[in-house]
Here is the input.
Amino acid sequence: MFRSRAKEEKASAADRATVTDSQQTRHPEAPKGRPTPKRSQAQSQRRSVANTTMSRKEASKRQREERRAALERQRQALASGDERYLPARDKGPVRRFARDFVDSRFNIAEYFLPMAVIILVLSMIQVPQLQNAALLLWLVVIVMIVLDSIVTGVRLKKRLAERFPDDNRRGAVAYALMRSLQMRRLRLPKPQVKRGERP
Here is the structure.
């Protein structure tokens, strides 16, 4: 009676061993109950993995090419005003309206750099009258730019509140005032409206 039980236990252990051995020899990494893939499928999977893996040099080259292409799209968007590829600071209807508002009017601040060069040249001439005139002109220019910027900011803030009551308008006025300091031909994105045209 004890012998038959011992034989049964040995037989069951041998069966389990053969099952586990057969599973290990069949596919050591596959979980239980998963059929062994065909050789053609395994080879195609290995080829796809080998094709997708790249060296560090190839990956950095691809990143450089993608970055270059993105910068080229952004440059073209800055010239054409295409919203899809503009930088984050220039995107959105609020920022577009602020740009058009500034570009459609005459701004004293956009002539700040040429006037500053003229004032600097006048102040370097060793003539007291010209130096005094340069100092007075400098003060007049600063006061006019400040007043013009205040008027532009108030009007733009009012128009934005009317046009975009539910949108985020934070930073739009400062964005427009910084744009007004640049000469019109040097502004990016390029102006899309003419002077005097109502945005």
